[in-house]
Amino acid sequence: MDMPVFPNYIDGQWIDSGSHFENRNPADTDHVVGLFVKGTAGDIQAAAAAAAQALPAWSNLNAPARGAILYKTAEILDRRFDQVAADMTREEGKTLPEAKGEVRRAINILRYFGGEGSRLNGLLVPSERDRVHMFAIRKPIGVVGLVTPWNFPSAIPAWKLAPALICGNTVVLKPASAAPLSAWRLVEALHEAGLPKGVVNFVAGSGGELGQALVEAPPLKAISFTGSCQIGNWLHAEASKRRLRIQLEMGGKNPTIVLADADFNAAVENTVNAAFFSTGQKCTATSRAIVEDAIYDRFLDAVVERTRKLKIGDGMQPGIDIGPCVDEAQMDTVLRYIEIGRAEAGAPKIGGHRLTDGDLAKGFFVEPTVFADVTPEMTIAREEIFGPVLAVMRARDFEDAMRVANDIPFGLSASIQTTNLSRVFEFVYRMEAGLLTVNLPSAGVEYQLPFGGTKESSFGPKEQGPAALDFYSDYKTVYLKY
Length: 482
Ligand code: NAP
What we know:
Layout: E1 5-6, E2 8-10, E3 13-15, E4 20-25, E5 28-37, H1 41-60, H2 63-79, H3 81-92, H4 96-116, E6 123-126, E7 132-140, E8 143-147, H5 155-166, E9 170-174, H6 181-192, E10 200-202, H7 207-216, E11 220-226, H8 229-241, E12 245-249, E13 254-258, H9 264-276, E14 286-292, H10 296-308, H11 328-345, E15 369-371, H12 379-382, E16 389-395, H13 398-406, E17 410-411, E18 413-417, H14 421-430, E19 435-438, E20 454-455, E21 458-459, H15 468-472, E22 473-481
Parallel strand pairs: 1-5, 8-9, 8-11, 9-10, 11-12, 13-14, 13-18, 14-16, 15-16, 18-19
Antiparallel strand pairs: 2-3, 4-5, 6-7, 7-22, 12-21, 17-20
Helix pairs in contact: 1-7, 2-4, 2-6, 3-4, 4-5, 9-10
The structure holds NADP nicotinamide-adenine-dinucleotide phosphate.
């Protein structure tokens, strides 16, 4: 069977230079999902030039008409829902139900921002002067570069593309090399929905090679990046040299605080769900469970028993809870941190190994792993692992738990499990994180409210919800005497 080739998309043309890289299934590395075209610095320059050329017409098209294209894109994706979800499971490894949830979310995001086309409001306030009418309108910022990670390969491109487009910007999208197909499907749907040429350009290929070209492309006005702190911080420094607007969403080390008064079973379920679903490869995953002393032993036992029931395997199979790590490098990172954890905290209470029985040997499967009695100074309590590894930590009481929870450089998401309303509000006001959940898993956010973190996890305006418009538009203020 011929291997499908997924070309780059520049100035409305599908471009195949003939130089390809493989997109392999992390659950079965014998299976190549497709070939992607290796983009070059020249492709990035051509994409940025095409975006600059397309900008005047796109930004002058009325916003409801731009919204209509997003609605149509959503419809096209909806029609291909099963195929797009299956593609995602095959390229990224998350289970099919999780992939379906993500594709549904991408569709909803397109519809939500499509609706913004009819709402894109500015500001209108009374003047202190007689017969002066003053208002501010939103204008696009221009050509924006979008750089996305592999872990939400459809939702993250969607939550950057949709607000960028509705505000009238044009785009160069660079997806993650480990999972470019889901973003490609989105671009394919935009193309079929009638997006004018040059408005969105897609260039796959190594971030290391393409990143510099993107940041230096003369028409570029802004970059929105989601990924690791290391790359985000580098991009920030480069972007500052050219005074590009920048938005960074990066790593986390998210805590779930479990208090003695919590609904015990729900707290166990929420913690295991947030730590291990999507193989712990969510930026909002729980990697530290900080548990009040009074229930610590019982909670630890219950988490271990619940973890034992998780089924690991190819996410295309029914009944699987946890798929593989996205690639070998990610698996090796996880296994390296497990060894660090062994040295710091002793043998894990469960897990700790790569799984190689039968067909699992063809993939990058790591057992969900629980370390107990982890203390705040340990590496596994401080550094992002981005895999199925949970550190369980003991806290004397609520105050101690809050101190430990905040004692890290990251501030993405955090959760508390408690029935005490006062503690909930203490947590809401004092927790140093951008996304909080109460009696829910720390992961699992919706698109209608702002998304993003604080401290070293994030920089710049928030994504999603109405806040997304603030990054992708500029106010122009008008004073008018009549
Ligand atoms: P990554 O290695 O930083 O890669 C992210 C993107 O940046 C990829 O498209 C990558 O391309 C590209 N890239 C690599 N080097 C670059 C460079 N020099 N210039 C410009 N772009 C470059 O991150 P990842 O491994 O894909 O994703 C995992 C990380 O993302 C975790 O830290 C996770 O916490 C974070 N994340 C954060 C959020 C959030 O909202 N806060 C959400 C999801 C994930 P290649 O793939 O070609 O290398």
